[in-house]
Amino acid sequence: QVQLVESGGGLVQPGGSLRISCAASGFTFSAYWMYWFRQTPGKGLEWVSSIHAGVGKTYYADSVKGRFTVSRDNAKKTLYLQLNSLKSEDTAVYLCSAVVRFQHYWGQGTQVTVSS
Question: What is the CB neighbour count within 10 angstroms for residue 116?
Answer without folding.
Answer: 8
